[in-house]
Amino acid sequence: MFQLVIHGGAGSLEGKTAEAKNIHQSLCKIWEETFEILNNKTAEEAVISGICMLEDDPIFNAGTGSKLQADGEVRMSAGLMDGVNNRFSGVINVQNIRFPIKAAALLSKEKNKVLSANQATEFCRKHSFNEHDPLTPTRIREYKQKYEGLHGTVGIVALDKKANIVAGTSTGGIGNETPGRVSDSPTVAGTYASSKAGVSCTGIGEQITQQAAAAKIVIRVEDGMTLSEAVSKTIMESNYFNYSFGLISLDANGRIKVGKTAALGEVYYAYHNGERIETFYK
Q1: Fewer Cβ neighbours under 10 Å: the N or C end of the chain?
Q2: Active-site annotation holder among 64, 153, 191, 279
Q3: For position 107, what pLDDT does the model report?
Q4: Total structural domains in the chain?
Q5: Distance, CA of 77 to CA of 89 (rounded, Å)
Q6: Cβ pair 86, 194 in contact under 8 A
């Protein structure tokens, strides 16, 4: 058995039918291409390749098309976790590269597995990452208008034929934030996996971090809860604080659970339900 679930962020697209349809179509295409990779390769390779596709699509807030921080600069973050080997790696506020998830993947082979800011960017330059400008006209316009729409991340959780679970998340932040802000994505609060389950979160990073959402869900599954129970309990606890975030999750049996708090509009997810690719788009 192998399985795959992806997301392209979260927020509210009420009244924005064209934008919702575009996100739906992009997610379906990327899900199909990523699933083909998962069919032939490992969960880690599928997650990295799939997130690269999401980072390269400017409709999403990650990689090219990332939001601008308050000083007008783009700073991106990404996290990757190999559940079987208990190995987390990530980059925080890296700049001017095309694929932050590839930097996180490269760091998984290093002694020091999480780097931030200028040092993260320098690490990428030393390892032949080409200079890349992630700015798009749409994000510049949104920055000037202080637009608040699509929230922060893209992510994938995959289970491969050898029962390996890998989770990955990449983000351009929430937009107009204080320069240097750290999101949940390059931490185990937003990206976590074990041999039992994996989670990728999206939404307001501070709130995800305060709930330790991804790690909490996975640990609850390890302690005997079903994935559905673990997600539901974590969401219930988060609703108490009126938090706004969502998540995708997958367990070792291939069961998928998408969750969101009451305050959040929607998680832009995609997975195969056994008959067709199901997404947030109805």
Answers
A1: C
A2: 153
A3: 98
A4: 1
A5: 11
A6: yes
